[in-house]
Amino acid sequence: MPTYDYRCSTNGRVLEVSHRMSENLSTWGELCRQAGVETGDTPAEAPVERLATGGTIISSTSRGSGAAPMPPCGSGGCCAGGVCPMH
Fold first, then answer.
1. pLDDT digits (tens, 9 = 90+) for 19-45
2. Tens digits of per-residue pLDDT, 45-76?
3. Concatenated DSSP letters for 68-83?
4. Which of 8, 12, 36, 78 has its CA 20 to 30 A from that of 66?
5. Where are the domains of the chain?
């Protein structure tokens, strides 16, 4: 099953989850349920967005690298691929 990275705009956290390609999560509560984590202090209805990291197929023994993608370069396109190595 493909994995996807989602970012919560309220708390800035990125979580990696597996789901069908036809599914799309839109709230922190949905994302936390799918990831099997508590919502914590963030409201369950806080919006999340799927990051353009592509869907990666993983096996049941591998849960991906766990590393969050780098945020875009603040100065706008100054770095290769829009990712600043200074982060």
1. 998 999 999 999 999 999 999 999 999
2. 999 999 987 555 555 554 444 555 555 555 44
3. PPPPBPTTSS-SGGGB
4. 78
5. 1-58
